[in-house]
């Protein structure tokens, strides 16, 4: 029992420790942002207008920023292969953890889908509250133009709303095309829809530049909830007698005694007085800080892979094995490899953008420059690749391997 526990800890412990750290980071970021918008003085008036929808929408947006940043890192395959080398990362546990990059990519993707639903639902509530709680005292704070405005205008007639709707559609296409059934039956659908993430990120940058949610900038001149003798901010607020004598022209009618007075209005049993109106300003988009680095890193890697792939690979021979298995032997100038390494095959005559990784089953040596892979014909890409390599594609009935000699595609 102790041995099996130690074996599990040695093999899977680092993975679960990293997962726990990632989960804790998401929970901490969600809670921190929620409390900031729920208790922060700079968001007092905005919170009075939107309520809980403000806190949930911003907290879920923080989680989305984190995972939209992390989901790009497992896609940097050249960087991971560089780190995976035994000379770069000495620890076997770390190398084993890097092998789980695809699982982490899927985990981040599922998290993005879940919190996108939460984020959209919270903003639907915000759009309704903007319309119903329109405040004439704070015109710049309102996203609606007047009380009772159709909330659908905020969703389809504004930059944040329209980009959000399109992003939801793009995310839905990427999610449905990522299912196992579609990937196996038609990998092209998965691949091309997955490349819509470029569109998703461009829309994301436009989405956060709308500046719909604003915060108060002059907290010292105007403490949230203070009493302004020149213009009473709260019509249903009972003014103490001391202020009635000082500002007799600005007194208001009394309200029922059971009406609670908000906490920010009272400090040490005295009313705080301010002489200036609150000023509001839109946030600088924080999403740029989260995704600009990983996105630039991924774009640089894609460019590097494109430049490096310009060197053609010469296919020397193809062996067709039983059970729809092909062995492809190739040559490439100045190619070095280690046992267990994988290579990414790209054939423009099969697909202009699509490429697939395959583990090397034969590595080049000092005396032989040939290397090879075994691939299973299970999808549309491998079927078209087989048809290009073999003169006849119906090799299921063959018992012995068939050696084909012909002009192969690059």
Automatic annotation (TrEMBL):
UniProt GO cellular component terms: NADPH oxidase complex
UniProt KW Transmembrane helix keyword: yes
Topology in the lipid bilayer: Multi-pass membrane protein
Keyword annotations: Membrane, Oxidoreductase, Transmembrane, Transmembrane helix
Molecular function (Gene Ontology), one example: superoxide-generating NAD(P)H oxidase activity
Compartments, as annotated in UniProt: Membrane
Location of the FAD-binding FR-type domain: 308-410
PROSITE patterns attached to this UniProt entry: FAD_FR (PS51384)
InterPro entries, A to Z: FAD-bd_8 (IPR013112), FAD-bd_FR_type (IPR017927), Fe3_Rdtase_TM_dom (IPR013130), RBOH/FRE (IPR050369), Riboflavin_synthase-like_b-brl (IPR017938)
GO biological process, one term: superoxide anion generation
Taxonomy, superkingdom: Eukaryota
SUPFAM superfamilies, A to Z: Riboflavin synthase domain-like
Lipoprotein among keywords: no
Residue ranges of the TM segments: 20-39, 59-83, 104-125, 154-177, 189-208
Protein's name according to its UniProt entry: NOX4 oxidase
